[in-house]
Amino acid sequence: MHFRPYPGITVAAALMLAFLLGLGVWQLQRLQWKLALIGQVHRNMAAAPLTLDEALRRGPAAEYRRVTLHGRYGNAHEAYVFDIGPEGAPVFHVVVPFTTDDGRVLLVDRGIVPRDLKNPATRPDGIDNREAAFTGVWRTTLPPGFFTAPADAAHRIWFSRDIAAIARADKVRLAAPVLIEADATPNPGGWPRGGQTRVDFRNEHLQYAITWFLMAAGLLGVYIAYHVSKGRLVLTRRD
């Protein structure tokens, strides 16, 4: 084999090859991180429920843990978070303050209702202000993004789970900056429908890694073919 590489092309190709391989390795690392995250979430969801005090002590480690609370819903202060439901139709998450027996307040996502059941008068069976116990999932939420539509405060409609803004609107001080997502235990009348916690994380890192590695292989192939076409790379021995 005889090889006389073009210096400039070789340097550029080497840099591009290193970049593409680096992206592929990074995606493999992200894959391992995502698999570990998914495994931890499923372990947390399967674990026994915590008390509120246990969840507060765990801090961020309580994410996706089930928590059992005792107290009363503040159904007179329903807030509505717009979303697309499991069947692709617009829905509202019904978020209400929940006051525990010892006076601490948390926001609870009781579940979803279709648009025509947003008005609580259309689902009176699901409104219960008596003392109750329920189990939900401990979730932290992200603040609204730059492109998130502003809230419709007059109708108590939000377009992100902005728990800080909802708490301010209700003039309540939260025991923790979290949202408790009610489990799938049916409510009287069937609405709101709980059990909306999403654990189906998107995981396409392996496909991304393969794509970057294939691009790296393609670049190497083009580099070799170009040098062969210019007579700078001879793969067979010349007599």
Describe the structure.
With 239 residues, the protein is an alpha+beta fold. Helix content is 33%, strand content 22%. A hairpin with a 5-residue loop joins β3 (79-84) and β4. The longest helix is centred in the N-terminal third of the chain and has 40 residues, at 7-46. The strands form two sheets. A five-stranded mixed barrel has the order 2-4-5-8-6. A two-stranded antiparallel sheet has the order 1-9. It is built from four helices and nine strands. The chain has helices at residues 7-46, 52-58, 163-170, 205-229; strands spanning 2-3, 66-73, 79-84, 90-100, 105-114, 132-139, 157-158, 179-182, 233-234.
Helix content: 25-40%
Work out the strand percent. Answer: 15-25%
Spatial strand order of the main sheet: 2-4-5-8-6
Spatial extent as radius of gyration: 27 Å
Biggest sheet character? 5 strands, mixed, barrel
Write down the overall mean pLDDT.
90
Low-confidence stretches: none
SS-based class: alpha+beta
Total number of helical segments?
4
Total domains: 2
What's the number of extended β-strand segments?
Answer: 9
Helix-strand pattern, N to C?
EHHEEEEEEHEHE
Distance between termini? 12 Å
Shape: elongated
TL;DR?
The protein has helices at 7-46, 52-58, 163-170, 205-229; strands at 2-3, 66-73, 79-84, 90-100, 105-114, 132-139, 157-158, 179-182, 233-234. With 239 residues, the chain is α+β, with helices and mostly antiparallel strands. The strands form two sheets. A five-stranded mixed β-barrel has the order 2-4-5-8-6.
Key features of this structure:
239 residues, alpha+beta, 2 domains, 22% strand
